From TrEMBL:
Residues 1-32 form the signal peptide. It comes from Sphingomonas liriopis. This is TonB-dependent receptor. Residues 76-191 form the TonB-dependent receptor plug domain. InterPro entries: Beta-barrel_TonB, Beta-barrel_TonB_sf, Plug_dom, Plug_dom_sf, TonB-dep_rcpt-like.
């Protein structure tokens, strides 16, 4: 690996090849901010020299260092921590996708998407997605760029796995500082910029197989580059496959996770009259008299609700929990566990293609184009059917005439249409997603004159996401209960067609009773599960121009400036199938088709001046106009190379994040389903949460500052320390549905049926009085020893979290060392372990290298669904794993590479967590991951 350090005319390079090196590079401010040593170190003979921080030819992009538009300001002269990993380092890790890098960045707190987090939602957990989440401020607070340009947030965030084939990456630069003054909205916690190789010549091939027990993964890639100094084109392709992984396949997630209440299964049945046999006698099932039970416990309205008579049987995989006044049967709840049948991650196949082309039309004038395409197919296998969420004034009725009804009278059913044990030939409910993403850029760059340069480009970035799920059409479900089930029964919404008779010929009866589900005709799945589809389209149209150069020479130093403007049009639409729109689905909906667009106009400027030798002052500001609000984000930064062995730095800025385009609309924008505890009776059940937009939303803003120092006390040793601080103002938060129903159980935002059962909770986004505030210290150390031909590098990187204040909207509490999943915690809150550390040792000898890495995350208090301030009931233990790898280069020209390694070599399981089994933001349940990679370059 090459690590570029500061110098006054040369580069200082530190060698090493490992996952630990990658982690240090991405997590240590030392890489960008170290002052020069008296004698520069030689580059690792196994690693090519780093890409120069300054490129003077007109064919080089103006954005040389992420976080700046200034062409001729060196990375080492900037004050913001800027962290770089090159392609050689990326290739010598066990990660199978760009998104996997986030697991090795201590400053990154988990990832939305990819692996399921049932407690707070994993983003798009039905497909292969990974987000960046620097400092735990939320995926939307980290701006992700491809070659310095915005990419469509297809999953509510930019999916790192969709950007470009890993083989095409020249380097990844990460800014751990507010960067809204340069890039505008969303760069609150920092910037993650992926830069592709536009000058590659030849053919490069790579293939990797990763063995994960029950869930292998494979990646095949190729890159081909041809051309000369005038015309050059580079094309890269990648295919990636990951097998799905279910909760039942890991001990930490394969446990009984009870679901009860009105939405439970096998289900609950409500009597409206006294049960009776055909002869008028009492109904006795399994030795229990349900007629006398009704006589004794019916309500004043003449109703009584009982659990399924076979609750607790092996077939139902359920537990009967009697109520306090139950005679031992009937009354209470029937708990079952959906846990084993839900996924940890989906099965996914993805295809990526990327091309960079440049053409010099005249000396100093270059046209460029970038085209990228991404396609993913994914399958998520889940519990066979959703719970019945909306029951209306009267739930579905199992009529007395249904031959499977043992009670002899009409009874209402509330539960899951298909039992937890599945339906004949239908063991899982399958969610299928298709994603098509496009990135097209055309532009020009070149010399204007007098040392000034320009870059102008137009970008189209778009995505189409089609999701197919299954839900129960309650009209079809009722028809099957009435004996008109099956795909060939002549029945319409207006009633039975000519010749149709209940339970005769093609018309079938369905029984929701556990004892009968396995006996049902498989064709009845037609009445129990209907396809529902969602089509989402997101588009960005961006035009941008920047000019930069030296404005003046003052006291022998250049005042360098950049000015520019950007126009951005954002469009988003969602279209839903009829069942989702109608509200007749048992669980999903109702939804509304939506279409939104907005225009963003911005201007920006940046200046850099070296006041005296070694002391650089940088100032930047950006103004953005969204139409209904405007905002300005300034930044000032200082970098001072006090001595060749000592560098000091500091920056202060204001960053902002605009509301999502849908969040500002005065309409229903989404419908989710979560577990709700009804404070009126204490029952816990799935209920719909309807989210409405808020046109009054203002952008959330943050004050950001960073101070740090880097020290080179002796040759080959570097030490770095940074103190960072982020404080939100007017943070955009989504109302917590549980907090809404707790505050006003009978209020206008809680929709209840005629029996008083909560059906839906209405929520919206709002600007919190303050917002999350967080601060901490990053410390990194790097020491290299040369023993003969061997090079040994020792590294350590520590991120210490000092504060993580969470604003619930009513109170602010200290979240450090907590899971931050209280009943009223905002969805933006992340688990906040006090310590995150990575340590590594790397050894390179000739054509061989060996490395070992230790990753550690400290424990947190498990506050899942507790009230803020409640006593501690559980902890999520620390996560401590070791990674190892070996690599070899061989062939006459060293054109072949072989890499073997293991991630989590000792097969460490993640610590147990309430409800979800583990926390995806702290560890993963994959276990040992052994991989082999082969590569060739011609």
């Amino acid at each position: 690996m090459t690590i570029q350090l500061a110098s006054t005319g040369s580069r200082r390079l530190l060698g090493g090849l490992s996952i630990g090196t990658l982690a240090i590079m991405l997590a240590s401010a030392a890489a960008a901010q170290v002052a020069p040593a008296a004698t520069p170190l030689p580059a690792d003979p196994q690693t090519p020299a780093a890409v120069p921080a300054v490129q003077d030819d007109a064919d080089a992009p103006d954005i040389v260092v992420t976080g700046s538009y200034l062409r001729n300001v060196r990375q080492e002269d900037r004050a913001s921590p800027i962290l770089t990993i090159d392609s050689e380092s990326l290739a010598k890790t066990g990660v199978t996708s760009l998104g996997d890098i986030t697991r090795f960045i201590p400053q990154n707190v988990g990832s939305a998407g990819g692996i399921q987090d049932l407690a707070k939602g994993g983003g798009a957990d039905s497909r292969d997605t990974r987000s960046a989440n620097l400092r735990g401020l939320g995926a939307g607070a980290t701006l992700v760029l491809l070659n310095g340009r915005r990419v469509v947030p297809a999953d509510g965030f930019v999916n790192l796995n969709s950007l470009t084939p890993e083989i095409a990456i020249e380097r990844v630069e990460t800014v751990l500082d507010g960067a809204s003054s340069t890039y505008g909205a969303d760069a609150v916690a920092g910037v993650f910029n992926v830069i592709t190789n536009t000058r590659f010549n030849g053919l490069k091939l790579s293939a990797q197989y990763t063995h994960i027990e029950d869930a292998p993964a494979a990646t095949v890639q190729a890159m081909w580059g041809v051309g000369d100094d005038r015309f050059h084109t580079v094309t890269s392709l990648a295919y990636r496959y990951q097998a799905g992984l279910q909760n039942s396949q890991r001990a930490v997630t394969n446990f009984f996770n009870p679901s009860s209440g009105a939405g439970a299964n096998p289900g609950a049945f409500t009597f409206y009259s006294r049960p009776r046999t055909a002869a008028g006698g009492d109904v006795v099932i399994n030795g229990n008299n349900y007629s006398t039970l009704y006589d004794r416990f019916r309500s004043t309205a003449g109703t009584l609700t009982v659990v399924d008579p076979n609750c607790g049987s092996a077939a139902s995989q359920s537990r009967y929990v009697p109520s306090a006044n139950s005679p031992g049967f009937g009354l209470g709840s029937c708990q079952f566990s959906f846990q084993a049948q839900n996924p940890i991650r989906p099965e996914a196949k993805s295809y990526l293609a990327h091309n960079d082309t440049t053409y010099e039309i005249a000396p100093g004038q270059t046209l460029f184009a970038e085209i990228g395409f991404y396609h993913q197919d994914s399958n998520r296998r889940s519990v066979p059917s959703y719970a019945q969420n909306r029951v209306g004034a009267r739930p579905p009725i199992v009529p007395a005439g249904n031959p499977y009804n043992p009670f002899g009278v009409d009874v209402a059913f509330t539960g899951r249409a298909i039992g937890s044990q599945g339906f004949p030939g239908y063991d899982y409910r399958l969610i299928q997603d298709k994603v098509d993403q496009r990135q097209i850029v055309v532009g020009a760059r070149g010399n204007i004159g007098g040392g000034w340069k320009y870059t102008a480009n137009a970008t189209y970035s778009g995505a189409d996401i089609t999701s197919t799920d299954r839900d129960t059409d309650m009209n079809l479900f009722q028809a099957a209960l009435n004996g008109y089930g099956g795909p060939n029964c002549n029945i319409r919404y207006s009633g039975p067609g000519a010749g149709s008779q209940p339970g005769v010929g093609n018309c079938l009866y369905f029984s929701p009773f556990t004892a009968d589900v396995s006996k049902m005709d498989p064709s009845l799945i037609f009445n129990l599960q209907s396809n529902v589809t969602t089509l989402t389209k997101i588009e960005y149209l961006i035009g941008e121009a920047v000019v930069n150069g030296s404005l003046a020479q003052i006291a022998g130093h250049s005042l360098d400036v950049a000015v520019g403007a950007q126009y951005r049009k954002e469009k988003q639409s969602s279209a839903y199938s009829d069942l989702l729109l109608s509200g007749f689905g048992g669980f999903l909906g109702p939804y509304r088709n939506t279409a939104f667009d907005r225009e963003v106009k911005s201007v920006f400027a940046e200046a850099n001046y070296e006041i005296v030798d070694g002391l650089n002052l940088n100032a930047a500001a950006r103004y953005e106009d969204y139409g209904n609000f405007k905002t300005t984000a300034p930044k000032i930064a200082v970098n001072w190379r006090v001595l060749p062995q000592l560098s000091l730095r500091g920056s202060a800025s204001k960053a902002f994040q605009a509301p999502a385009i849908a969040n500002s609309a005065a309409t229903l924008i989404s419908n989710n389903v979560v577990n709700i505890i009804d404070p009126r009776d204490g029952t816990t059940t799935f209920r719909s949460v309807q989210q409405y937009g808020n046109p009054a939303l203002q952008p959330q803003k943050a004050d950001v500052f960073n101070v740090g120092a880097t020290l080179l006390p002796i040759d080959h040793l570097s030490l770095s320390i940074d103190y960072w601080h982020y404080k939100y103002k007017n943070q955009i938060q989504l109302q917590n549905a549980q907090a809404v129903i707790n505050a006003a159980p009978n209020g206008p935002n809680v929709i209840r049926d005629a029996n008083g059962v909560a059906q839906s909770v209405i929520i919206s986004s709002y600007n919190a009085p303050s917002g999350t505030g967080t601060s901490g210290i990053d410390v990194a150390a790097n020491y290299r020893i040369d023993i003969g031909a061997a090079r040994i590098t020792l590294r350590d990187n520590l991120s210490y979290l000092a504060t993580y204040d969470v604003d619930t909207g009513t109170i602010v509490y200290d979240g450090v060392g907590h899971r931050n999943n209280y009943q009223t915690s905002p969805l933006t809150a992340a688990a906040a372990p006090r310590w995150r550390n990575l340590a590594a040792v790397d050894v390179s000898l000739g054509d061989h290298f060996v490395s070992g890495t230790w990753r550690y995350v400290s424990s947190v208090i498990d506050d899942y669904q507790q009230l803020v301030g409640a006593p501690t009931v559980a902890k999520v233990g620390a996560w401590s794993v070791f990674d190892v790898q070996y690599g070899l280069r061989f062939g006459s020209d060293k054109q072949y590479e072989l890499t073997l390694g293991m991630i989590n070599a000792f097969d460490k399981a993640p610590a147990a967590a309430l409800y979800t089994g583990y926390l995806s933001t702290l560890g993963d349940p994959y276990g040992r991951q052994a991989y082999i990679r082969v590569g060739a370059k011609f």
